[in-house]
Amino acid sequence: MLEHYSLIAVVIAALISYFIGFIWYSPALFGKTWGEAFVAKEGITKEDMKPSPELFIGALVLAGIMAYGLALLMELGQVHTFGNAIWLSFVAWLALVATTHFSGVIWARKPLTMYFVDVSCVLAQIVLITLFLTWWG
């Protein structure tokens, strides 16, 4: 259970993360690039990629899990400064996200374009979650 961060802070952090992903994968930013790489790799149509409400709900649940987990890591590491929050973000991202996602490049031959769009989004989400929680706390 969290002692330093309220459930409200974690929920707001999850919403921040969710909206970063929503913006990141929008056609205005990287959605078109990512979608073209995905369609080329998987051989599906753009029609197959239309989102459903279940996907948005799933993304929100995952954002909540990520925000809660980062809040726990911040408590365990006694992260209370912006500098430490950024450092924790980078280490968590490098050790857990960049490495595991790269296995998709190696084994599933995921295009590098998709890899870089995906991992850079998660890095932005992690950094913003930890900075927000540091600010809140």
Written description of the protein model:
The protein is globular. By secondary structure, it is an all-alpha fold. The chain has one domain (7-136). It is 77% helix and 0% strand. The chain has helices at 7-24, 31-42, 53-76, 82-107, 112-136. It contains 5 helices and no strands. The two termini are 16 Å apart.
Layout: helices, strands, pairs:
Elements: H1 7-24, H2 31-42, H3 53-76, H4 82-107, H5 112-136
What are the key terms here?
single chain; 137 residues; mainly alpha; 5 helices; globular
Q: What percent strand? A: under 5%
Oligomeric description of these chains: single chain
Q: Overall mean pLDDT score? A: 93
Can you summarize the main beta sheet?
Answer: none
Please state the structural category: mainly alpha
Morphology? globular
